[in-house]
Every structure is written in structure tokens, then in C-alpha cells.
Amino acid sequence: MESGTKEEEDVVGYNSNNVKKAKLLSTLTALLDDPILADVPKKPTLSDVDTLISLELGSAMRISILKLDGTSFEVAMMNSATVKDLKLAIKKKVIELEQSKMGHRHISWRHVWSNFCLAHHNEKLLDDGAALQDFGVRNNSQVHFLPYVVSKGSGRHSKRRKHRFFHGLNKRL
């Protein structure tokens, strides 16, 4: 008899949790549709909300990213952010924009970062560990993409060079 009432309480508790969750989601959806909160992503994480709060308090900055096609978008970053943090924020924002426009689309970020780099006032942001403020990036700054080719001195060889190396070994045998 006691186990029957416990099961009923679990079902009632489960239903009330579902109701609470549904109310929370509907409230969150209504809040995100508010024009004042237009810069909040559709599925915000705790770090997104924290960054936006910091932006309002002045301990974060909004950076405009200019793409090669002339369009731009904005990302919010903490004042202590590094170039790597900016790259991750760009990746997240671009994926979010692509999802909203065209559904799932794969972008090879390895290809993007090996052929393009970010620049601020024509100064290339090449060191991922460097703070953005070291390059003069401040609130409302604009960062743009530049074509970038890795120099041969970086220690990386092209596939063609490797291919010629192995091809030469076969001729000697």
C-alpha cells in the first residue's frame, strides 16, 4: 500500500517538474523574443550570459568582425580575452548564424585559420596566446580577415614536397 502512494507521488512530482520546466522554457523564450535582449543567443550558455552582463558592467567589449565579403557581425568578449578566445567566439557566432540561415553546414576551421588570419589596423593577430588589448583591441573595435600564407620557415612542408621526397626514393631502388 505504501509503495503505491510513493509511485503516485513520483508521478505527480514528475509531472510537476515537467510543468515547471515547460513554464521556464516558455518564459525564457518570451524573454529572448524581447528586442532589448536581441543580442542574447537563442540557446544561451552560462558563459554567454556572463559575458553579456560583463559587457553591460563595462568589463567586457563588443568587437565587430568584418568578413572578406564586406558583411560584418559582432561578438562580445571579456577585456582579458586572448586571440584564441576571439577565434572561438567567431567560430561559435558563425556556426550560430549559419544554423539560423541554412541549417547544418560544415565549415573547416582548420582550413580557415591556415589560409586567413585576423587583423586589427593592419596588424596581424598571429599569436593565439596574446591578449587582444596588446594589439590595441578595445570596446567597439573592428577586426577583419586577411589572406595569410604560412611561411616555409614554420617547419611545415606541403604535401607536394613530401610526395616528391617519396617519389625520389622509389626511383633509386
TrEMBL record:
Coiled coil: none annotated. InterPro entries: SNRNP25, SNRNP25_ubiquitin, Ubiquitin-like_dom, Ubiquitin-like_domsf. It holds the Pfam family Ubiquitin_4. Residues 61-146 form the Ubiquitin-like domain. PANTHER family: U11/U12 SMALL NUCLEAR RIBONUCLEOPROTEIN 25 KDA PROTEIN, U11_U12 SMALL NUCLEAR RIBONUCLEOPROTEIN 25 KDA PROTEIN. This is Ubiquitin-like domain-containing protein. It comes from Hibiscus sabdariffa.
